[in-house]
Design brief:
heterotrimer; A mainly alpha (239); B mainly alpha (371); C alpha+beta (185); A: mainly alpha; Cytochrome Bc1 Complex, Chain D, domain 2; two-stranded antiparallel sheet; C: 2 domains
């Protein structure tokens, strides 16, 4: 009986987050958060567009390959067309190439940015404390420096970054990209979507993990009852 | 033509007879708690680690360690799950090992005739710590890279026999050959621990008092161990699918960077009870002495405990065990905090209490109990 | 007779009730072991980048008309040729019954991409690599390929026209992902 209730509760929780396309900005939240959350593929696709347009100019993502984009919901033909638009040193990119690294080696990157090499974004959402929320805050917390704060040359004031000054110029503007599904591309929306995309990039298998996990846990709870009951039955029989 | 009296397989494979006797001889006590099956659970979990580690080793490349692990996570079918099995399995095994050690202290299982079993338990614990640490540095993340660099620097900094052993183990300064070598050690030790497990199991039969009206292993204890295993698997499943990076420093999920030192270079959580000695004894020799002394005190328990053999532990002893466990946990927690004046004093106090417990409190309390 | 049957049924009932739990236990345990074993077994299947070797993608947008790209796929040379309008016109309406190995134009090209011919560049009689990718190579009377070993002649669609060979050039398994890329396999 308890098992049925637990299963029902779990299914209800599973069903709830996918119900409506709601406002994810006030307050900022992501569908993948929480024990039963799953990735919002539409947000991931929008985030990939922002990444490709804005971030990929300076950041690498060496662990990601174009073939991995089928996890966002693109078809093979769409990804092949997408990749073909990327010019690598060996020609147009194919499905099996890694995401283009804008610089051939770290020295070139350091030379281009005065030593502040843009970090690789493949696992950034897992490494930075706070993950998704930290990325969102970082991208939306650029502000004018207070009167008594003088940032170093080449640095910008950002309240979310430890030390309050970051070498990355504010990357997002309103309507820098045009979303195919018609969502308004405010800079906050772009930040939310690219944060979702980078979270997916760090842990692409989160959905599968939670799905298999739910089934495994329910089955093991059932098996635990059976195993304990069998043990007690066997002991009662002869001992 | 003579007909064999035994069935075909058994006449050609006499081990089956011994196995049947092992399963059905009524030599086990009539009631053992579920927690008594911890060593069997740990053994099963280690076999599981071996299998997942074997699959990982097919794709792991020590020359490009971090990227090969990213490849496993992203491009190998279920690679992310095998990797999570291996990581969470480590957490679960050490949780079970620490629980088992605490249980042995609580129940006084180290007293005669259980001394050999106790030594084998400690030996198993130490080898497991080494295997775990090697696995941690093999990941070549931002933190474990520096942890390895510190260990090698420490080993090279020691002189004499400990220094010689350290240098021999690492085979030279941190370079291209270090990770391939440590990968082989990780695998070899993992196989060797199976041997220690077998010895441990063989010693257990000798450590338990003989039973007059006993029950057989099968089906009584096989059903109990199976039930215990399902509960262990349930906890494991919750962790592996919903919190696979529990206890891991999130910085370690990024690539190693020789130019950037992380704010805290911490070892994996299961090494903290020993490595926190490095926060109190700042020199390498001091830390080494502290670690060896703590292990030696644990090993000397059968003689430090002055109670009569076979006597169950009384209330004072149980209190002492709980306080010791609390002390070790607090030591670990405080070692993880950023250093401060109060923190430093507390660390010294907690470390001193550990030694005080074994050298003074325990012999005193147990001797008083025995009277 | 009826009594003993009744006894047997009753006995079975008792046994099933007593052992049902144990059997359920064992069966559920077996299911768990099987479910756990599957990821381990599947992890040893080819990884997602093995497809890169087994099913490579080739960019064909750079091939000029009347030339062919030579591409090696797991040891086998593949020729991807772009046809000129004259070659298409000459070969499109050949009566197939006159060919040693009858095949029509539509059999040899993919619908929608009729200017590309993709064949394995080995003579079907003697395993010898063909000449004719470059316009300066000996292409034979049909402006296709020739075999330097036994003199077999092929047309631009890879159909055999004369010589010891009697079978057309083999067309490998491939798909056009878009106008510019072919994926093999």
């Amino acid at each position: 009986m308890r098992r049925l209730l637990l299963a029902g509760f779990a299914l209800a929780c599973l069903a709830a987050p996918r119900a409506q396309a709601e406002d994810t900005l006030n307050p900022p939240h992501w569908q993948s958060e929480g024990v039963f959350g799953s990735y919002d593929k539409a947000a991931l696709q929008r985030g990939f567009l922002v990444y490709q347009t804005v971030c990929a100019a300076c950041h690498s993502a060496n662990a990601l390959h174009y073939r991995d984009l089928d996890g966002i919901g693109f078809s093979t033909e769409q990804i092949a067309a997408l990749a073909a638009g990327v010019k690598l040193s060996t020609g147009p990119a194919t499905l099996d190439d890694a995401f283009k690294n804008p610089y051939p080696d770290p020295q070139a990157a350091a030379a281009a940015f005065g030593g502040a090499i843009p970090p690789d974004l493949s696992t950034i959402a897992a490494v930075r404390p706070g993950g998704t929320r930290y990325i969102f805050n970082l991208l939306t917390s650029y502000a004018a420096a207070p009167a008594d704060f003088l940032p170093l040359p080449g640095h910008y004031y950002n309240t979310a970054f430890p030390g309050q000054q970051i070498a990355m110029p504010p990357p997002l503007k309103d309507n820098q990209v045009t979303y195919a599904d018609g969502v308004a591309a405010t800079s906050a929306q772009e930040a939310s979507d690219v944060a979702a995309f980078l979270t997916w990039a760090a842990t692409p298998n989160l959905d599968a993990s939670k799905e298999i996990g739910l089934r495994a846990v329910l089955f093991l709870v059932f098996l635990a009852f059976i195993a304990i009951a069998t043990k007690r039955k066997i002991w009662r029989e002869t001992v | 033509m003579s007909t064999l009296s035994k069935p075909w397989l058994q006449s050609r494979f006499p081990l089956l007879d011994s196995f049947r006797t092992y399963l059905t001889a009524p030599v086990l006590p009539r009631e053992k708690p579920y927690l008594a099956s911890l060593p069997v659970l740990i053994a099963g979990a280690l076999i599981f680690q071996l299998l997942s580690g074997l699959v990982l080793s097919l794709f792991y490349n020590p020359a490009d360690a971090f990227n090969s692990i990213q490849f496993i996570d992203r491009s190998v079918n279920y690679g992310w799950l095998i990797h999570a099995f291996h990581e969470t399995g480590t957490t679960m095994i050490f949780g079970a090992v620490y629980l088992g050690i605490f249980r042995a202290l609580w129940l006084r299982n180290y007293k005669a005739p259980g001394e050999l079993l106790w030594f084998l338990t400690l030996g198993k614990f130490l080898v497991l710590l080494l295997i775990g640490y090697l696995g941690y540095v093999l990941a070549d993340g931002a933190v474990s890279y520096w942890s390895l660099a510190n260990s090698i620097a420490g080993a090279f900094g020691l002189s004499g026999v400990p220094g010689g052993i350290g240098v021999w183990f690492f085979g030279g300064p941190d370079g291209a050959g270090t990770l391939p070598r440590l990968a082989v050690f990780h695998g070899v030790l993992a196989v060797a621990i199976i041997g220690i497990l077998l010895l441990h199991h063989a010693a257990r039969r000798g450590a338990e008092p003989p039973v007059t009206r006993g029950v057989s292993l099968h089906p009584y204890y096989t059903s109990q161990i199976f039930a215990a295993f399902v509960i262990y698997a349930l906890i494991f499943a919750v962790l592996v699918f919903f919190a696979p990076h529990l206890g891991e420093n999130p910085l370690n999920r990024g690539p190693a960077n020789p130019l950037v030192l992380p704010v805290t270079v911490s070892p994996p959580w299961y090494l903290l009870p020993l490595s926190n000695a490095g926060h109190v004894f700042v020199s390498a020799w001091g830390a080494l002495f502290a670690v060896l002394a703590r292990i030696a005190l644990l090993a000397a328990l059968p003689w430090l405990d002055r109670s009569a053999p076979g006597k169950p532990p009384g209330f004072p002893h149980k209190c002492l065990s709980l306080v010791l466990a609390l002390d070790v946990i607090l030591l670990c927690v405080w070692a993880m905090q950023p250093s401060s004046f109060i923190g430093g004093i507390l660390l010294v106090l907690f470390t001193a209490y550990y030694f005080f417990h074994f050298i003074v409190l325990l012999p005193l309390t147990t001797a008083l109990e025995a009277r | 007779m009826a009594e003993s049957l009744g006894e047997i049924v009753h006995e079975t009932e008792v046994i099933v009730r007593r052992d049902f739990l144990k059997i359920l236990n064992a069966a559920a345990g077996a299911v768990a072991v099987g479910a756990i074993a599957w990821p381990f077994i599947d992890a040893l299947n080819p990884t997602r980048d093995a497809l890169a070797i087994a099913q490579p993608i080739v960019d064909v947008s750079g091939i000029a008309a009347n030339t062919a790209l030579r591409f090696v796929w797991m040891g086998t040379p593949i020729y991807i040729r772009k046809l000129t309008p004259k070659q298409i016109a000459d070969n499109q309406f050949v009566v197939t019954s006159t060919l040693p190995d009858p095949a029509s134009y539509t059999d040899r090209v993919k619908p929608g991409y009729e200017t590309f011919v993709v064949v394995i560049g080995l003579n079907t009689a003697t395993p010898c690599e063909l000449l004719g990718n470059d316009p300066a190579d000996p292409r034979g009377p049909f402006d296709g390929w020739t075999c330097p070993c036994d003199g077999s002649v092929y047309d631009p669609l890879g159909r055999v026209r004369s010589g010891p060979a009697t079978k057309n050039l083999v067309i490998p398994k491939f798909t056009f992902l878009n106008d510019a890329q072919i994926q093999f396999g």
